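Input record (one chain):
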Amino acid sequence: MLSHGGKTANKSLNPTGKIGALLCFCPSGSSNVTKTMERNKIIECLFLEEENIQLSTPIYRYLSLESFLFLLEFKRIPFSKIKNWPDSFEGSHFDFMSRQHKENHAKHNVISDFYASCWTLQEEPRVLYSTEREHKNAVEELKQHGSAAMWQSYCQNGGVRIKTTIGKFVDICQEYPSGYTIYHGPVYYAAANSFSKTIKAPDQIYTLLHKRVSFRYESEYRFILITDSEKNHSIETVPTGDLFDFIDEILVSPATETGEWIARTIYHMGLDITIDYPKRTDINSKDGKRFCRISQLFKRISEDVGYH
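The corresponding structure, as predicted from the sequence alone:
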């Protein structure tokens, strides 16, 4: 396939899930090392000019209150079926659904399904700021309080932003015994009529790592799961293991004037994770930092432990 920039991109995914061109990598630390796994393949997809992203890179996910309760109860992260996403333009610029049909037809009725788990790097474009210091301060503020646009999109009735790392998510995907292939990488944003980035990924995955510029505030990092057969259910879930090990921080959604009690109730749910952890030394502490906080984006909310 040729990208719009005229550079040769990757060949299609074959029925075994292997790549026809050596342009996808399985990262180990900062080096390009293919990981041999008994069941799942984990493959990193980057822009042509990019270096590998460190596995220690933080990623964040905004969860509604309902999704957070699901995580607390079942200790699982969902992948949602891409065909069911509400954005009808998702991947359509590169005819994703048409390509999926052609791929499945070529496999002689061995049909794959595509699922995704969407996270954010919580970053700001460097070009928007005149100095490194201004850029650093902007990113720190975003990580401190969260994105107002993301809170509005995903947590209108309360919720949280959880923090983990790319490496931790890759680890739980590797341990999940399903025989799936999982691709992951940052999303590239551009006007729909000027997509030109060459991404080291198979054709169908390539289409899912582009989004319209209107969604740039999401700063998305995406994990795409390909099943070995067609599935009837709308989500696939991956177990996290111990939540205190998997999650590095919980940020509770900012409270409105009448919703302070909601923020504090969710806050205490987050604190309970540290209380239940058998090796804890301090309540609400992990690696010397606060484990659970309330975003002070709209107003000051007490983070004292206990109800009042």
